[in-house]
Design brief:
- By secondary structure, the protein is an all-beta fold.
- A hairpin with a 5-residue loop joins strand 6 and strand 7.
- Helix content is about 0%, strand content about 45%.
- Strands 1, 2, 5, 6, 7 and 8 form a six-stranded antiparallel beta sheet that branches. Strands 3-4 form a two-stranded antiparallel sheet.
């Protein structure tokens, strides 16, 4: 018996309802948010969104590297993947 290695990445379709964040939700950043090309700390950074930036969740969640990631179509570019830690549902 050879067990396979455990992946650092888990994909989920639901989060606890207390977050209120889901695909289609409008969010607002509560701090500066790095925007990355993928849901990973090793993915390239495509830019930064400022405090109070808004956007719509288009994909996710993906849990990777100790964070929950969402793909966001921000009101102002750049768009991409950001961690949930500094997002609030509007």
């Amino acid at each position: 018996y050879n067990p396979s290695p455990v992946s650092d990445v888990l994909t989920s379709t639901t989060l606890p309802s207390s977050t209120g964040i889901a695909v289609g939700a409008t969010i607002k950043s509560t701090d500066y948010l790095n925007v990355r090309g993928g849901a990973s700390l090793t993915a390239s950074t495509v830019g930064v969104q400022p405090i109070n930036a808004t956007g719509i969740i288009t994909a996710g969640p993906i849990t990777a590297y100790g964070h929950t990631w969402w793909q966001v179509n921000y009101t102002t570019d750049p768009d991409g993947w950001s961690v949930q830690d500094w997002m609030g549902k509007m």
